[in-house]
Amino acid sequence: MTTLLTFSLPLLFSSLVWSGYLEYDQDVLIPDDWNHAGRLDPTEELGLTFALKQQNTDLLESILGLVSDPDSGLYGKYLTLDEVSSVVRPSKLTQKVVHHWLLSHGITSCLTVHTEDFLQCSMTAAVAEKLLPGSKFHRYIRDGHSVVRSSAPYSVHDDVHEHLDFVGGLHRLPPKGQDLSQASSNRELKQSEAGVHLGVTPAILRTRYNLTAADVGTAHNNSQAVAQFLEQYYSPADLAEFMGMYGSSFKHLSQVDRVVGTQGAGKAGIEASLDVEYIMSTGANISTWVFTNPGRHESQEPFLQWMVLLSNMSDLPWVHTISYGDDEDSLSAAYMMRINTEFMKAGVRGLSLLFASGDSGAGCRHLGTENSFRPSFPASSPYVTTVGGTSFKNPFKVSYEVTDYISGGGFSNVFKMPDYQASAVDAYLKTVAATLPPQAYFNTSGRAYPDMAALSDNYWVVINRVPVPWVSGTSASTPVVGGMLSLINDQRLLQGLPVLGFLNPRLYQLKGKAMFDVTEGCHLSCLDEQVQGKGFCAAPSWDPVTGWGTPNYPELLAALLAE
């Protein structure tokens, strides 16, 4: 339960003593598409999130390794939220120092979470700028949506520096929605013939990945979720219409069971509609939740708000799919490391977090005259399962799959390669050594992604009651994979087995078994003389464009039911 904290112990801090930048490497530049709407009035209220330093994060990582490794005696023996709290809860000293620091600035309105490692406090802009020297709060507007952020880096008092990971609500603007729509909307639509299709629908996905009408959920204790961080919403009417049009061949639900957060009253967003419609048609007949922008204050970071929510809810769906990402180099290391710990907290509870790999191929970062590839986070986190994208070889037939050129993939510049994938990635680097991009473009020792893939091209989505074709992006492939993992969880639960939890150690142990290997095509990257727009290319077994390939559902089910 969320607890209201009111502090009553006075402690004097000299406001003159400060030097500690928690996020010295955080990009604070405001992108051009945000328009400056003025300095914040000193009396305006802000909501800031304080990430308190946790204890035993090494132990947490060890526990995650044990409960996720099929060869471990502790495989599937997940922790409750209470047990997670007892591992990571900040020390009494940390809590005392942070609380006293806030109180010394007159900040008394704070909420904590079950794990006690986040504090969310409200205060005026004037108090925030005094609390966090260097910060300067401004309002910015894009597409009619306003946010409050600091235009300059913040620091904290020396006495609290070692007790905080970062403060949320100063930097990191909500990402712009990926351009999912109608890459090929000018193609002529021909009459459908036998064996020919005009885009991806639930029936096409079920045919390609060998799901039958019997492959639907029946376990009462199973659920799945999508999380939305853009200013857009799914429409219940669109979902019902979509299922009416495309769900006749399998048992399904036509309503979301629970919305966590606030659904807007505006028009439905294409990405929100895509996520919900496809997780519920692949993970058919399974209770589905939607996490949406939780009535957010202008100064809140929507993704961070979702992470905080997970730390405060003991009863959560088992599978979460998220279509969200930022460039690694735009985020502070302190922020990413802490978010990784949050992913570990989810993993030890048996939650499966799936992130879209992104729609920019290998990406490109321009540094002076030199270019390099640009990995995306959280796709590059070692503690989530990252999903890339594919296309049909023949776009109008259920043929084999090739790389979707937008499919995000590559190597982290921040996180080292986890042990579970080392041999697979090493084999790839050796196999394609002669055709790899120049070494200066990527970090061969970093966490490599994606882990797997699914179709990400030419989807039909119902939006504002109208079927819309040619919707593409890894925002499509991720809920499709999520729905299939939910179906596998369903079968495991019916057999009295634990849910899949953090999938990667087991996925890499399968070495591509039960997957359709994708071996054709490359994804995009820097348009320069050296790589000429070409990033990595697909290859036999694992590759940094499509991971292990796409799921052959009945075989994957059998492999993941085998104990």
From TrEMBL:
<keyword id="KW-0458">Lysosome</keyword>
<dbReference type="GO" id="GO:0046872">
    <property type="term" value="F:metal ion binding"/>
</dbReference>
<dbReference type="GO" id="GO:0004252">
    <property type="term" value="F:serine-type endopeptidase activity"/>
</dbReference>
<feature type="domain" description="Peptidase S53">
    <location>
        <begin position="199"/>
        <end position="563"/>
    </location>
</feature>
<dbReference type="Pfam" id="PF09286">
    <property type="entry name" value="Pro-kuma_activ"/>
</dbReference>
<dbReference type="InterPro" id="IPR036852">
    <property type="entry name" value="Peptidase_S8/S53_dom_sf"/>
</dbReference>
<keyword id="KW-0068">Autocatalytic cleavage</keyword>
<keyword id="KW-0325">Glycoprotein</keyword>
<dbReference type="InterPro" id="IPR015366">
    <property type="entry name" value="S53_propep"/>
</dbReference>
<feature type="active site" description="Charge relay system">
    <location>
        <position position="275"/>
    </location>
</feature>
<dbReference type="GO" id="GO:0006508">
    <property type="term" value="P:proteolysis"/>
</dbReference>
<keyword id="KW-0378">Hydrolase</keyword>
<keyword id="KW-0479">Metal-binding</keyword>
<keyword id="KW-1015">Disulfide bond</keyword>
<keyword id="KW-0732">Signal</keyword>
<comment type="function">
    <text>Lysosomal serine protease with tripeptidyl-peptidase I activity. May act as a non-specific lysosomal peptidase which generates tripeptides from the breakdown products produced by lysosomal proteinases. Requires substrates with an unsubstituted N-terminus.</text>
</comment>
<protein>
    <recommendedName>
        <fullName>Tripeptidyl-peptidase 1</fullName>
        <ecNumber>3.4.14.9</ecNumber>
    </recommendedName>
</protein>
<keyword id="KW-0865">Zymogen</keyword>
<keyword id="KW-0720">Serine protease</keyword>
<dbReference type="InterPro" id="IPR030400">
    <property type="entry name" value="Sedolisin_dom"/>
</dbReference>
<feature type="active site" description="Charge relay system">
    <location>
        <position position="475"/>
    </location>
</feature>
<keyword id="KW-0106">Calcium</keyword>
<feature type="signal peptide">
    <location>
        <begin position="1"/>
        <end position="19"/>
    </location>
</feature>
<dbReference type="GO" id="GO:0007417">
    <property type="term" value="P:central nervous system development"/>
</dbReference>
<keyword id="KW-0645">Protease</keyword>
<feature type="active site" description="Charge relay system">
    <location>
        <position position="271"/>
    </location>
</feature>
<dbReference type="InterPro" id="IPR050819">
    <property type="entry name" value="Tripeptidyl-peptidase_I"/>
</dbReference>
<dbReference type="GO" id="GO:0005764">
    <property type="term" value="C:lysosome"/>
</dbReference>
<dbReference type="GO" id="GO:0008240">
    <property type="term" value="F:tripeptidyl-peptidase activity"/>
</dbReference>
